[in-house]
Design brief:
mainly alpha
Amino acid sequence: DQGELGEAIDKQIAASSIFKIDRKINEAIPTLEELEQEVASGNYTLGIYIPENTTESIRKNVARYVLAAFSGTMEKPSPDMVNFVIFIDPTTKISFYTALMSTLKERTQKIEFEYVLNEISRQVNEFSPIPISTDGFSTEQVHIDIRDARLEGRDLNPNPVQHNVPSWTLFAVFFIVISLSGSIIRERQDGSFSRMMTMPCSYTEYLLSKAVVFTIISLIQCVLMLLIGVYLLPLFGMESLNLGTSPAALILLALSAAVAAIGYGIAIGNIANTIHQSAIFGAISVVIMAAIGGAWIPTSIMTEPMRSLSRISPIYWGLSGFMDVFMLNAGVKAVLKECGVMLLFGLVCFAVAVMFNYRRRLDV
Protein backbone atom coordinates (compact mmCIF):
# COMPACT_ATOMS: atom_id res chain seq x y z
CA ASP A 1 0.00 0.00 0.00
CA GLN A 2 1.40 3.35 -1.05
CA GLY A 3 -1.14 5.40 0.94
CA GLU A 4 -1.08 6.96 4.37
CA LEU A 5 -1.55 3.71 6.27
CA GLY A 6 1.35 1.92 4.61
CA GLU A 7 3.65 4.90 5.13
CA ALA A 8 2.57 5.36 8.76
CA ILE A 9 3.15 1.70 9.63
CA ASP A 10 6.50 1.75 7.86
CA LYS A 11 7.65 4.82 9.81
CA GLN A 12 6.38 3.49 13.13
CA ILE A 13 8.13 0.13 12.78
CA ALA A 14 11.35 1.83 11.67
CA ALA A 15 11.19 4.22 14.65
CA SER A 16 10.87 1.34 17.11
CA SER A 17 14.52 0.36 16.45
CA ILE A 18 13.53 -3.29 16.98
CA PHE A 19 13.29 -4.32 13.35
CA LYS A 20 15.50 -3.96 10.29
CA ILE A 21 13.16 -3.30 7.38
CA ASP A 22 13.53 -4.43 3.78
CA ARG A 23 10.82 -2.95 1.58
CA LYS A 24 11.90 -4.77 -1.56
CA ILE A 25 13.31 -8.18 -2.42
CA ASN A 26 15.66 -8.32 -5.40
CA GLU A 27 14.84 -4.67 -6.19
CA ALA A 28 11.12 -5.42 -6.52
CA ILE A 29 8.09 -5.32 -4.26
CA PRO A 30 7.35 -8.99 -3.45
CA THR A 31 4.04 -10.69 -4.04
CA LEU A 32 2.20 -12.48 -1.25
CA GLU A 33 3.60 -15.84 -2.34
CA GLU A 34 7.16 -14.53 -2.63
CA LEU A 35 6.98 -12.99 0.83
CA GLU A 36 5.77 -16.25 2.36
CA GLN A 37 8.57 -18.16 0.63
CA GLU A 38 11.24 -15.77 1.95
CA VAL A 39 10.03 -16.05 5.55
CA ALA A 40 9.60 -19.83 5.31
CA SER A 41 13.17 -20.11 4.00
CA GLY A 42 14.49 -18.31 7.06
CA ASN A 43 15.67 -15.24 5.17
CA TYR A 44 13.36 -13.01 7.19
CA THR A 45 11.91 -13.25 10.68
CA LEU A 46 8.66 -11.47 9.84
CA GLY A 47 6.87 -10.54 6.66
CA ILE A 48 4.04 -7.99 6.53
CA TYR A 49 1.86 -7.78 3.46
CA ILE A 50 -0.40 -4.72 3.22
CA PRO A 51 -2.62 -5.02 0.13
CA GLU A 52 -2.63 -2.33 -2.51
CA ASN A 53 -5.15 0.51 -2.02
CA THR A 54 -5.66 -0.41 1.64
CA THR A 55 -5.73 3.26 2.64
CA GLU A 56 -8.35 4.06 0.00
CA SER A 57 -10.49 1.10 1.08
CA ILE A 58 -10.48 2.28 4.69
CA ARG A 59 -11.37 5.80 3.58
CA LYS A 60 -14.33 4.53 1.55
CA ASN A 61 -15.55 2.33 4.41
CA VAL A 62 -15.46 5.28 6.80
CA ALA A 63 -17.28 7.48 4.29
CA ARG A 64 -20.08 4.92 3.92
CA TYR A 65 -20.53 4.58 7.68
CA VAL A 66 -20.57 8.34 8.27
CA LEU A 67 -22.95 8.93 5.36
CA ALA A 68 -25.28 6.23 6.68
CA ALA A 69 -25.19 7.80 10.14
CA PHE A 70 -26.07 11.28 8.81
CA SER A 71 -28.81 9.95 6.53
CA GLY A 72 -30.52 8.23 9.47
CA THR A 73 -30.65 4.81 7.84
CA MET A 74 -30.91 1.86 10.22
CA GLU A 75 -29.15 -0.55 7.90
CA LYS A 76 -25.41 -0.70 8.34
CA PRO A 77 -23.41 -0.60 5.12
CA SER A 78 -21.29 -3.63 4.34
CA PRO A 79 -17.60 -2.67 4.47
CA ASP A 80 -14.88 -3.74 2.09
CA MET A 81 -12.86 -5.90 4.47
CA VAL A 82 -9.15 -5.10 4.50
CA ASN A 83 -6.89 -8.02 5.41
CA PHE A 84 -3.27 -7.71 6.44
CA VAL A 85 -1.17 -10.85 6.10
CA ILE A 86 1.69 -11.42 8.52
CA PHE A 87 4.07 -14.31 8.00
CA ILE A 88 6.03 -15.32 11.11
CA ASP A 89 9.08 -17.51 11.47
CA PRO A 90 8.12 -20.14 14.10
CA THR A 91 11.37 -19.43 15.96
CA THR A 92 10.48 -15.77 16.42
CA LYS A 93 10.43 -14.60 20.02
CA ILE A 94 6.99 -13.69 21.29
CA SER A 95 8.25 -10.23 22.31
CA PHE A 96 8.91 -9.32 18.67
CA TYR A 97 5.50 -10.55 17.60
CA THR A 98 3.80 -8.62 20.42
CA ALA A 99 5.63 -5.41 19.55
CA LEU A 100 4.69 -5.77 15.89
CA MET A 101 0.99 -6.41 16.54
CA SER A 102 0.86 -3.47 18.93
CA THR A 103 2.33 -1.18 16.29
CA LEU A 104 -0.06 -2.34 13.56
CA LYS A 105 -3.15 -1.96 15.73
CA GLU A 106 -2.09 1.45 17.00
CA ARG A 107 -1.40 2.94 13.58
CA THR A 108 -4.50 1.42 11.97
CA GLN A 109 -6.82 2.71 14.68
CA LYS A 110 -5.25 6.14 14.62
CA ILE A 111 -5.68 6.53 10.87
CA GLU A 112 -9.26 5.21 11.01
CA PHE A 113 -10.06 7.79 13.68
CA GLU A 114 -8.56 10.59 11.60
CA TYR A 115 -10.64 9.52 8.60
CA VAL A 116 -13.80 9.48 10.73
CA LEU A 117 -13.14 13.03 11.94
CA ASN A 118 -12.39 14.28 8.44
CA GLU A 119 -15.49 12.65 6.97
CA ILE A 120 -17.73 14.01 9.73
CA SER A 121 -16.27 17.45 9.13
CA ARG A 122 -16.95 17.17 5.40
CA GLN A 123 -20.56 16.04 5.91
CA VAL A 124 -21.26 18.82 8.42
CA ASN A 125 -19.75 21.47 6.17
CA GLU A 126 -22.20 20.55 3.40
CA PHE A 127 -25.15 22.02 5.33
CA SER A 128 -23.50 24.19 8.01
CA PRO A 129 -23.23 27.94 7.28
CA ILE A 130 -20.06 28.05 9.33
CA PRO A 131 -17.35 25.68 8.12
CA ILE A 132 -15.65 23.56 10.75
CA SER A 133 -12.25 21.94 10.73
CA THR A 134 -10.81 19.01 12.65
CA ASP A 135 -7.22 20.07 12.15
CA GLY A 136 -6.94 21.18 15.78
CA PHE A 137 -8.30 17.93 17.17
CA SER A 138 -5.74 15.86 19.04
CA THR A 139 -5.98 12.11 18.65
CA GLU A 140 -3.88 11.62 21.79
CA GLN A 141 -5.88 12.80 24.78
CA VAL A 142 -4.38 10.37 27.29
CA HIS A 143 -0.68 9.93 27.99
CA ILE A 144 0.34 6.79 29.85
CA ASP A 145 3.41 7.29 32.01
CA ILE A 146 4.88 3.89 32.87
CA ARG A 147 7.25 3.87 35.83
CA ASP A 148 8.86 1.19 37.95
CA ALA A 149 7.58 1.32 41.53
CA ARG A 150 10.27 2.47 43.93
CA LEU A 151 10.71 2.23 47.68
CA GLU A 152 12.83 5.03 49.16
CA GLY A 153 14.50 5.62 45.82
CA ARG A 154 15.11 1.90 45.23
CA ASP A 155 14.04 0.33 41.96
CA LEU A 156 11.64 -2.58 42.52
CA ASN A 157 12.47 -4.11 39.14
CA PRO A 158 15.41 -6.48 39.80
CA ASN A 159 18.61 -5.78 37.93
CA PRO A 160 20.82 -8.64 36.69
CA VAL A 161 22.96 -8.63 39.82
CA GLN A 162 19.97 -8.77 42.18
CA HIS A 163 18.57 -11.75 40.30
CA ASN A 164 21.69 -13.70 39.37
CA VAL A 165 23.64 -13.55 42.63
CA PRO A 166 20.96 -15.19 44.83
CA SER A 167 20.04 -17.54 41.97
CA TRP A 168 23.56 -18.91 41.62
CA THR A 169 24.02 -18.87 45.40
CA LEU A 170 21.05 -21.19 45.89
CA PHE A 171 22.11 -23.29 42.91
CA ALA A 172 25.57 -23.77 44.43
CA VAL A 173 24.15 -24.58 47.86
CA PHE A 174 21.87 -27.27 46.46
CA PHE A 175 24.70 -28.82 44.47
CA ILE A 176 26.17 -29.90 47.79
CA VAL A 177 23.72 -32.81 47.63
CA ILE A 178 26.14 -34.62 45.28
CA SER A 179 29.06 -34.70 47.74
CA LEU A 180 26.79 -35.27 50.76
CA SER A 181 24.87 -38.18 49.26
CA GLY A 182 28.10 -39.62 47.88
CA SER A 183 29.77 -39.59 51.31
CA ILE A 184 26.79 -41.39 52.89
CA ILE A 185 26.85 -44.13 50.25
CA ARG A 186 30.64 -44.45 50.40
CA GLU A 187 30.60 -44.94 54.16
CA ARG A 188 27.86 -47.53 53.78
CA GLN A 189 29.76 -49.44 51.10
CA ASP A 190 33.23 -49.49 52.74
CA GLY A 191 31.93 -50.50 56.15
CA SER A 192 32.61 -47.21 57.94
CA PHE A 193 28.93 -46.75 58.67
CA SER A 194 28.64 -50.19 60.28
CA ARG A 195 31.64 -49.49 62.54
CA MET A 196 30.20 -46.11 63.58
CA MET A 197 26.88 -47.73 64.44
CA THR A 198 28.70 -49.94 66.99
CA MET A 199 29.25 -46.81 69.04
CA PRO A 200 26.53 -45.57 71.41
CA CYS A 201 24.79 -43.23 68.95
CA SER A 202 21.58 -43.41 66.97
CA TYR A 203 21.24 -43.09 63.21
CA THR A 204 19.56 -39.73 63.69
CA GLU A 205 22.59 -38.45 65.60
CA TYR A 206 24.83 -39.75 62.83
CA LEU A 207 22.85 -37.78 60.24
CA LEU A 208 22.74 -34.65 62.40
CA SER A 209 26.53 -34.71 62.76
CA LYS A 210 26.87 -34.74 59.00
CA ALA A 211 24.22 -32.05 58.66
CA VAL A 212 26.10 -29.69 60.99
CA VAL A 213 29.33 -29.95 58.98
CA PHE A 214 27.64 -29.47 55.62
CA THR A 215 25.51 -26.62 56.98
CA ILE A 216 28.67 -24.72 57.87
CA ILE A 217 30.03 -25.36 54.37
CA SER A 218 26.78 -24.14 52.81
CA LEU A 219 26.77 -20.95 54.89
CA ILE A 220 30.36 -20.24 53.84
CA GLN A 221 29.28 -20.68 50.21
CA CYS A 222 26.44 -18.20 50.70
CA VAL A 223 28.73 -15.62 52.28
CA LEU A 224 31.31 -15.93 49.51
CA MET A 225 28.70 -15.63 46.74
CA LEU A 226 27.13 -12.55 48.32
CA LEU A 227 30.55 -10.94 48.78
CA ILE A 228 31.24 -11.56 45.09
CA GLY A 229 28.06 -9.64 44.28
CA VAL A 230 29.05 -6.76 46.55
CA TYR A 231 32.76 -6.37 45.75
CA LEU A 232 33.82 -8.40 42.70
CA LEU A 233 31.06 -7.81 40.13
CA PRO A 234 31.42 -3.99 40.26
CA LEU A 235 35.00 -4.44 39.03
CA PHE A 236 33.51 -5.76 35.77
CA GLY A 237 31.24 -2.75 35.30
CA MET A 238 28.16 -4.24 36.96
CA GLU A 239 26.14 -2.80 39.82
CA SER A 240 27.07 -3.64 43.37
CA LEU A 241 24.66 -5.92 45.20
CA ASN A 242 22.68 -4.11 47.89
CA LEU A 243 22.18 -6.56 50.74
CA GLY A 244 19.19 -4.75 52.22
CA THR A 245 18.82 -3.66 55.83
CA SER A 246 18.32 -6.96 57.67
CA PRO A 247 21.39 -9.19 58.13
CA ALA A 248 19.28 -11.45 60.36
CA ALA A 249 16.86 -12.12 57.48
CA LEU A 250 19.78 -13.03 55.20
CA ILE A 251 21.22 -15.41 57.81
CA LEU A 252 17.83 -17.05 58.32
CA LEU A 253 17.33 -17.48 54.56
CA ALA A 254 20.82 -18.92 54.07
CA LEU A 255 20.33 -21.31 57.00
CA SER A 256 16.91 -22.43 55.73
CA ALA A 257 18.28 -23.02 52.23
CA ALA A 258 21.16 -25.03 53.70
CA VAL A 259 18.74 -27.19 55.72
CA ALA A 260 16.63 -27.83 52.60
CA ALA A 261 19.69 -28.76 50.51
CA ILE A 262 21.22 -30.97 53.20
CA GLY A 263 17.94 -32.74 53.90
CA TYR A 264 17.60 -33.41 50.18
CA GLY A 265 21.16 -34.71 49.97
CA ILE A 266 20.66 -37.02 52.95
CA ALA A 267 17.47 -38.39 51.39
CA ILE A 268 19.23 -39.13 48.10
CA GLY A 269 22.11 -40.76 49.97
CA ASN A 270 19.71 -43.16 51.67
CA ILE A 271 17.53 -43.89 48.64
CA ALA A 272 20.28 -44.44 46.05
CA ASN A 273 22.27 -47.67 46.06
CA THR A 274 25.43 -46.46 44.33
CA ILE A 275 27.45 -43.26 44.11
CA HIS A 276 26.75 -43.04 40.38
CA GLN A 277 23.00 -43.16 40.98
CA SER A 278 23.16 -40.40 43.58
CA ALA A 279 25.44 -38.20 41.46
CA ILE A 280 23.33 -38.46 38.31
CA PHE A 281 19.96 -38.10 40.01
CA GLY A 282 21.18 -35.36 42.34
CA ALA A 283 22.67 -33.25 39.55
CA ILE A 284 19.69 -33.60 37.22
CA SER A 285 17.11 -32.94 39.94
CA VAL A 286 18.92 -29.83 41.19
CA VAL A 287 19.12 -28.45 37.65
CA ILE A 288 15.40 -29.07 37.21
CA MET A 289 14.59 -27.39 40.54
CA ALA A 290 16.70 -24.39 39.53
CA ALA A 291 15.07 -24.17 36.10
CA ILE A 292 11.47 -24.28 37.31
CA GLY A 293 12.28 -22.26 40.43
CA GLY A 294 13.25 -19.13 38.51
CA ALA A 295 17.02 -19.31 38.94
CA TRP A 296 17.65 -18.78 35.23
CA ILE A 297 14.35 -17.44 33.91
CA PRO A 298 12.46 -15.08 36.26
CA THR A 299 9.08 -16.47 37.25
CA SER A 300 7.53 -13.10 36.38
CA ILE A 301 7.83 -13.88 32.65
CA MET A 302 6.74 -17.52 32.96
CA THR A 303 3.29 -18.69 31.99
CA GLU A 304 0.73 -19.15 34.76
CA PRO A 305 1.03 -22.98 34.75
CA MET A 306 4.82 -22.70 35.03
CA ARG A 307 4.53 -20.17 37.88
CA SER A 308 2.29 -22.61 39.72
CA LEU A 309 4.76 -25.44 39.09
CA SER A 310 7.70 -23.35 40.30
CA ARG A 311 6.28 -23.31 43.83
CA ILE A 312 7.23 -26.94 44.35
CA SER A 313 10.91 -26.00 44.08
CA PRO A 314 12.66 -24.88 47.29
CA ILE A 315 14.89 -22.70 45.13
CA TYR A 316 11.82 -20.64 44.21
CA TRP A 317 11.11 -19.90 47.87
CA GLY A 318 14.72 -19.09 48.62
CA LEU A 319 14.95 -16.76 45.65
CA SER A 320 11.68 -15.08 46.61
CA GLY A 321 12.98 -14.44 50.11
CA PHE A 322 16.28 -12.98 48.91
CA MET A 323 14.42 -10.70 46.48
CA ASP A 324 12.27 -9.38 49.31
CA VAL A 325 15.34 -8.57 51.40
CA PHE A 326 17.32 -6.99 48.56
CA MET A 327 14.52 -4.99 46.93
CA LEU A 328 11.94 -4.35 49.65
CA ASN A 329 14.25 -4.06 52.67
CA ALA A 330 12.27 -6.94 54.17
CA GLY A 331 13.06 -8.13 57.68
CA VAL A 332 12.86 -11.48 59.42
CA LYS A 333 9.08 -11.38 59.79
CA ALA A 334 8.55 -10.85 56.05
CA VAL A 335 10.59 -13.92 55.05
CA LEU A 336 9.24 -16.36 57.64
CA LYS A 337 6.95 -17.98 55.07
CA GLU A 338 9.79 -18.64 52.60
CA CYS A 339 12.06 -19.93 55.36
CA GLY A 340 9.28 -22.11 56.73
CA VAL A 341 8.71 -23.79 53.36
CA MET A 342 12.42 -24.54 52.92
CA LEU A 343 12.75 -25.86 56.47
CA LEU A 344 9.70 -28.06 55.96
CA PHE A 345 11.19 -29.40 52.73
CA GLY A 346 14.44 -30.26 54.52
CA LEU A 347 12.69 -31.92 57.46
CA VAL A 348 10.48 -34.02 55.18
CA CYS A 349 13.57 -35.18 53.27
CA PHE A 350 15.29 -35.96 56.57
CA ALA A 351 12.31 -38.05 57.66
CA VAL A 352 12.34 -39.89 54.34
CA ALA A 353 16.03 -40.69 54.85
CA VAL A 354 15.40 -42.15 58.31
CA MET A 355 12.50 -44.22 56.96
CA PHE A 356 14.55 -45.67 54.09
CA ASN A 357 17.41 -46.53 56.44
CA TYR A 358 14.96 -48.31 58.75
CA ARG A 359 13.59 -50.33 55.83
CA ARG A 360 17.11 -51.21 54.67
CA ARG A 361 18.04 -52.49 58.13
CA LEU A 362 14.88 -54.64 58.19
CA ASP A 363 15.77 -56.10 54.79
CA VAL A 364 19.21 -57.02 56.08
